[in-house]
Give the backbone structure.
Amino acid sequence: MSHLFPTYGRYPISIVKGKGSRLWDDQGKEYLDFMSGIAVTNLGHVPDRVKAALVAQLDQLWHVSNLYQIPNQEKAAKLLTDNSCADAVFFCNSGAEANEAAIKLARRYQQKVLGNGRHEIITFARSFHGRTLATLTATGQDKVKEGFLPLPQGFVHVPLNDLQALEAAVNDRTAAVMLETVQAEGGVVPVDPAFLRSVRELCDRRGLLLILDEIQTGMGRTGKLFSYQHYGVEPDIFTLAKGLGSGFPVGAMLAKAPLIPAFNAGSHGSTFGGTPIAMAAVAATVETMLIEQAPERAAVAGELLMGKLRDALDGVPGVLEVRGKGLLVGIACDGPVADAVGELQRRGLLVIVAGPNVIRLLPNLLVTSEEIEEAVGLIAAVLKERAAVKPAAE
């Protein structure tokens, strides 16, 4: 009998070791990892510089609380702000906490700095923003909300890429618009660049804040250090987690200078946010990404991966589209893909779903062309075999 809550539909695999793009289970079986812990190990497993930074920090100091100065927080924050449009950072422990902080900052800025009563956040259908009560309410998927009523007020959902619906939803209570540049959990659905530019213009015109959830798209995943850098648009607030600490749990909420007064002393906090250990991981991760040019390499690798997938899957029955940005890639199919994911796992390739009908690929940003060839070969074989037997099964 397990003593854990059964909140996860776990695969029957126990992973015990990882390095680079490879994982090994407790039976010694090797896997090519094309899910990276759900876009977390963006530098591969156990990256050398991050490991060295963590080992050194473990010998020095683990925790003191945010009642004291933590020099590594300043170092990590400077690395992030020097390489983004942001001016200030709040460190926390997860993506959900980062999005909570973004929601709170937007409301507090409108109410305490600008002195109005704005509090509503507009988000989009099929989005995913977390599992706290506020962030699951912000999420545009009903399945994560079942059994958690009553939900907090102040969230409105509209269809993605529908400017008319968005404009109709804005009123004198609206504080901010919050979206992902690629809806990863929602099916690997990229935002229309023209729509995102129109959202920025609408926010400027109506006095709203633009919040970008970069929990999965940030830290080089889409081929830029931060995904907003593709679009010629800057957010007022954006959030990070997942790839920020190379597997060490950490999140961050970043914002521009005018919003800094909204989070004055005592307005928000976190016991474990920005510990010396977490900051060692963040600083080493960002430094490594810059030194290794990981985002640029991800852009090249993503084009290679999507191109090879399109060639290999062209004409395969059941495959509708290969889409994505950088190394956030989805293979959209005409029905559920859980069986294909399971078969790929049995053959030694780890991938994940994005909704019932999309196979999501999230290799690390330093993935090699040989590893891409190996993965595409396995995926093509499984989907072709699946297509061949499907009519008989029906």
